[in-house]
Amino acid sequence: MKLYLWDQAAKDFYKKFTSSEDTPTVLLVTTVNPKTVAGNLALSSMSSSRVFIDKDIQPTIDYFSWLSSNPEIGKQVNADEVTRVETMTIGQIFAYIKQEYAKVNTTLRYLCQKQNIFMSSLASTLLQEASFNCIATIGDVKHDSPWYYISCGGCHTKATRGPSSLMCAKCGNTNVSGEAKYRAEISVYDSNDQAVFVLLGDAGSELTGKQAAELVANYFEANQELSAGHQMPAPKL
């Protein structure tokens, strides 16, 4: 379930969260409005909502104590029973993205005015992730951009080239074991709209039947004279 905090509730949460010595684990929000977002139940704060974390008040203290005594309780939640992936058209996905950005921009402007917070530092935190099924026809595969990237072998985030090795900004690893992953841009359309979808990681192998790492390894094995920075052209499958 997702919780949306707006205006004063968002400001209160930010102050409490950033002032906590440890990462909070219990959040209590009073007076919320239940609604359905992309087919999933969500809770949205209102002007009368109040925010409490961890040991602010006795109810959160009691729940925090109960949660600490029952660490296995979280494993009993079946995510498949809680979240339902909804089938949407390209136009509906565009509308959802536009709606989410409008909400985020409103909250960011408020927080920046009140707290002198740099907007871009909070944008990625406030944006909500959502999963949809979208049925569309593939019109073309774009060839004007690299079709794969070298990822961190641990978290699969794009690795960056350091002075003598690959590094991962997310993991903090300065000696990454790189692995080729798909990053294919495909042009798709349905009966009303068109868009460009980006296939990352294993999603590309579902279309090609082969892993990107296998294709890249075979290419450089057959062309050993090429430098390490050479980009393999898109394969003909």
UniProtKB/TrEMBL annotation:
It comes from the Eukaryota. Gene3D superfamilies: Nucleic acid-binding proteins. InterPro entries: NA-bd_OB-fold, Rep_factor-A_C. It comes from Brassica napus (Rape). This is (rape) hypothetical protein. Residues 132-226 form the Replication factor A C-terminal domain. Pfam families: Rep_fac-A_C (PF08646). PANTHER family: OS03G0429900 PROTEIN (PTHR47165:SF4). The lineage of its organism: Eukaryota, Viridiplantae, Streptophyta, Embryophyta, Tracheophyta.
